[in-house]
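=== RUN LOG ===
request id: a7f3
mode: sequence -> structure
chains: 1
length: 140
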Amino acid sequence: MALRHRAEASILATAMTDQRTIFLLLLFFIGIPTAPAQEKKTADPKVEEVANALFDRGKYAEAAKVYRALIIANERALGAEHPATLANRCALAFALKYQGKYADEETEHHAVLTIRERVLGAEHSDTLSSCYCLTICLEN
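=== RESULT ===
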């Protein structure tokens, strides 16, 4: 990829504060391939909306309970390795983080990373995102 694109990514990264966004932008600009978007339908979209709304309102303990229930439903209906199940586990990890439950957060991020690495491969964008989340978790 041209040096100009890397410079643009650097400028964008400096202007942004969301670390995950910066990471994904850099992946895009340096040319790490990403897979086509997979269907990530959850077992119960309404329950996921409730969990996300609770999270957005800062009600992390309540959100974590709903995410846990949703993960169980997803595992039964879709399987433990389904993208929606893993996405909900990541959301649970963040809810745990904001409750100060860092060991539990680390456990969730590590489990998701392990599954994604095995199923998708080490260079898949979802795997790299999980690796980044675990790294940030361990740094804090």
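=== NOTES ===
The radius of gyration is 16 Å.
Confidence is low (pLDDT under 50) at residues 33-37.
=== END ===
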